[in-house]
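hey so i finally got around to running the thing on that chain from the lab meeting. sorry it took forever, my laptop kept dying and i had to restart like 3 times. anyway pasting the input first so we r on the same page abt which one it is
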Amino acid sequence: MAENYFGITDTGKMRTNNEDTFIAQPVLNDQFIAACVIDGVGGYEGGEVAARLAHDAILDRFKSKVNDYIKLMKEAIAAANEAIYTEKKVSRANEQMACVLTVALADIANNKFYYCHVGDTRLYLFRDNSLVKITRDHSFVGFLEDSGRLTEEAAMRHPKRNEINKALGFDSSIKGDDYIETGESPFLPGDTILLCSDGLSDMIGNSAMVAILDTTKSLSVKAKALVDAANAAGGKDNITVVLVQNNKSPLMQTATKPAVNIKKNESQDGYDILKNTNSHSNEKTAIKNRKRSSIGPFLIFLSFLILVAFLWILYSNYSNKKTRDEEVRSAIVVKERNPEERQFVDSINGNTTKEVFVLNTPDTKAIVITDSILIKNDSLHIIGNGVTLISDSTYKGAAFTMAPDCKYLLLDSLTLENFDIGVLTKTSGLHLKNVQFKNCRVPVQYNFLFKDRPVINGRFADTAFYNLDSIHL
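ok and heres what got predicted. didnt touch it at all, straight out
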């Protein structure tokens, strides 16, 4: 690689495979340096496949000749999304795969860079010993950090740090102009842009990155030092770093003194000098008056600028508050259930016989669950007839949640698959019959409720009895 760009990816200390990849090379007739970090998700091999498909689709699209570079990058990302979604349809082993990415085109000749971004990979700009995060993480925790509600350290430790709400491969096409974050920025001589996966940004903070970037070492040494720092902090994920530097020499401006013309007194006659003494005094007075009169408009103009600046600050605060409120409203999205799931939930909520029968025919497919099903009935018997409830790829939570008012729930002949929690209960009224839990981290989780008292006395007893012949874990 050239001296002004470098990319590196590392498996990290906790993973056995690397689902990251990157691009760092000249494109578009060597006018631009393409920098891209791609983080694949979706299983042992699925993430690698998604990242590779995105990598190839983007480089293929960068062979085009265009003038709208942001449009070109958005088309490249759309092509990557289509390639991943098409592969998911034909390969059942990779049906959960997706990827997130950040791509930039650096135009060093014109001191500018353009970027597009989806997910929680990041783009930073390093200028004058200061590191500024350009992109926003497309996750709720990232939104809390970007809006100042969480510190960088708290966000790095948050248990839902890696739960993203945007990625390539979720849908057949990217919907909405705002799905892809885009922008452009000056890229001045001496500037460096850093693109990285969350394997770096989740392990080391801004100050540690600055300490490494603020040296005279080569980009390759800096990139490897960033990877080493992330591994030293734990290396919990794959680590990918791409650096691009505007290595042109900064322009140096030489300050010059303004030319001063010194007028010589053309009068050589002493009488003339004495005669003009009063006129010089009058001229000085006139100059003072002119200066005084010129200060008035200047003060008026300065007051006007201060007023405009004050109004602009008020408007900016109002606009930023409005934007933050809209982002909060957009971040808290009420999930819309799919038709089969909605029919199943409606049969539970509208039940009057205390029994729900799920129809299972040869054509019946697994019911995809996008959010927890709250059981508020006093008692309920759900007869699944062998139907499978499977967690949506973007949902992490419980399949069923028993409300405190639910005294009795019998799940009969059901399979719960890919849930973080199978059943979340706050009472002892849960009964299971011929229930299977497949790939559920916690099949049943019991939450205890205590009244608001200063002191609690008692003991926890093992009162749950299950016949393992009828429950397959």
